[in-house]
Structures are given as structure tokens and as C-alpha cells.
Amino acid sequence: MLQYIIRRLLVAIPVLFGILLVTFVLARMIPGDPCKAILGEKATVEVCERFTREHGLDKPIPWQFAVYAKDILRADFGESIRFSRPVSQILVERLPMTIELAMGGLILAILIGVPLGIISAMRHNTGTDVATMIVANIGISMPVFWLGLMLAYLFALVLKGTPFWLPPSGRLSAGLVSIPFYEAWQWQVTAGTTWTKFLEFIANHFVFNALITGNWKILKDALQHLVLPVLALCTIPMAIIARMTRSSLLEVLGRDYIRTARAKGAGERRVLVGHALRNALLPVVTILGLQMGGLLSGAVLTETVFGLAGVGRMLFEAITARDYPIIQAFTVVIAVSYMLINLVVDVSYAFLDPKVRLD
User: Fold this and answer.
1) Per-residue model confidence (pLDDT) at position 353
2) Quick count: other Cβ atoms within 10 Å of Cβ 327?
3) Own/partner pairs, 191-197, CB within 8 angstroms, 24+ separation
4) What proportions of the chain, in percent to the nearest 5, are helix, strand and coil?
């Protein structure tokens, strides 16, 4: 197992280098001038020349990539052209929001999609099967931006003044501040260090931070603000998980060892839980890994509709402003997340199916 993980990590090195190169080149192929995009169309030639010189954009592309690759090896993502701030600090502030949103969407998709798939498979070719698949098809057909707007309209406007009202935007209500756990516990930290940035990254997960500090007011408010975006984000993965669970479970239920278990007098519940479900989960786990990566990279519409300051929204704004360091850093983080998630999925096969040997 350990040898397999080491091999996968070594293979990931050239893949990561390829991602760095492709992202670097494609970012510079985006039409438009960073100077004009950031400073405005009225920026003079002299101002733009000074702008490009200050940010190293006047150098040859190979030289720029060599400098960028060297900085990446030192875990230095550079400085944002638009904000004149370290990109790593922007990641610390923005990535936790996207992680909370993606994790919430995936958990809700699993809690709804897997039971729907199981029910549909156990009630194959019945009205229940048709109804659950209709729900799944509706979920996979609705655009996220449309569903987000409809949810915001329903819960924020139509149900305003009722117990079912939910906030349509933001992470916390006005006037509420999430105090980092290290400040609440009166830890002595030095600003600007790597350890402090790591603590800030953890504390910017508002739900987790409120949970460990016992700030139930912040916890309740943060969860309320997550409900609508999570609902909008989880519909497509929920539908995909439900359909995959159904098809995988139907295939397993038709195998010989399932008929043998039934012939020996095993009840349907024992057949489902003890024999069929574990084997049926292998392709479902693969889908879960892909959906988690997709949720991390595809939350731009959800974050834009609900006014959330996450990675997706920042990446969209960076592309619009031709902010190359942010585009490159955020893309690399998403790519690394994909690789790590796929590694976890592959390793989990050995635990779900003892016949799988990763070594």
C-alpha cells in the first residue's frame, strides 16, 4: 500500500509540471492587455510600459515561466497584479469558503443520492423506481444559476417573515464576526509566518471554527447562509450519484452469489447490506471522487449567484482582469486537489474490496 502511494505521488510530479506549463501558457493566451484590464482603457502607453516592467511581463515567456516554476518550488505563488497582495494570502482567505461549500454539497448529495439509488434498485420497474429517477433527471437537468436564483427568490423573498426564511447571500449576517480559534484561546502567534497562515486557513472555515470554539450563534448563522448555495450546488452530483448507485446495485443484485444468499434463506436486508451494497459502492466511490473535484472547480456560478467570496468567483474575476498569478495559483490548487482526491479513491478500493491489491 505504501509503495503504491509513493509511486502515485512520484507520477504526480510530471503531471503537475504539465499543468503548470499549460496553465501558464493558456493564461497568457487570453485576449486583452493586463494593464488595460486593471488600470482601464484610458491608461497611457507610458503607464502601461511601467506596469508591465514592474510585474515582469516585458520579459520573454520562457524566462517568466522559469521564474514562476522556481517560485512554485519554494511554495511562493507570487503577488497578485490586481490587488498587490501575496496570492498565498488570498488563497488562505478564499479557499475555505469553497471547501465548505463543496463539502456541504457532496455530503448532501450522498445523503440524498445514495438512498434514492438504493430505493430505486430495490423497487426496480415499479412506480417508486420511476419516481426516484424522475427526481434524479430533474436534478441533473436544472442549471445551477437558474436554481440558485429560484431558491433565493423563494426562501428570501416569498418566505420572508416566516420561520422558513433563509439568507440569500454572504457567509455571515451583518454585525457578526467569526473570531479565529487561536485568538479565542489566546494563543501567541507571529504575523506573516507559515504557521500563522495555516492557522488562519483553518480559522477561515467558519463552521469548523465556530464548532471548536463553541460559538453557537456564529455556527447557526454560518450554516443558515450555506443552506441555499449547498442545495443549488448538490442537485447535479446528487442525481449522478443516485443513477450510478441504482445501476451498480442492479448489476450486483443479479449475480450468482446474491441468488445463492437468497436461496439459503437470507433476508432482503441482509442480502442488501451484507452482500450487495459493499461491492456496488466501488463505482460509486469513483463518482464521488470526480464529483468532489468538480465541486471544487465548478462553484463559480454558485458563488456568484449567492455573493460568496470563494475560489470560483475570484478565479472568474482574475480571468477578467488578466491577473496571471491568481489564475495560475488557483488552477494549480484545484489540480492538486483532484490528484489527491483520486489517490484517496484508489486507496479506498482496497478497503471496500479485499480482492483489490494496490501493491
Assistant:
1) 65
2) 22
3) 197/88, 197/89, 197/92
4) 75, 0, 25
Give the C-alpha separation, 335 to 161, whole Å.
43
Rounded to whole angstroms, the Cα distance separating 345 from 47 reads 50
Burial class (CB in 10 A: 0-12, 13-18, 19+), 28: middle
Report which DSSP code applies to 204: T
**CA 66 to chain centroid:** 29
Written as one letter, the residue type at 89 is Q
Residue 79: strand pairing partners: 86
For residue range 237-252, list pLDDT tens digits in order.
888 888 888 888 888 8
- Judged on CB neighbours under 10 Å (0-12, 13-18, 19+), 141 is exposed
C-alpha distances in Å from residue 248, one per residue of 118, 121, 229, 242, 262: 10, 9, 29, 10, 19
Distance CA 252, CA 126 (A): 19
Give the pTM.
0.83
Q: Return d(Cα 172, Cα 351) in angstroms, integer.
A: 39
> CA–CA separation, 350 vs 163, rounded Å?
46
* Contacts for 311 with CB less than 8 Å, ≥ 6 apart: 91, 94, 95, 97, 98, 296, 299, 303, 330, 333, 334
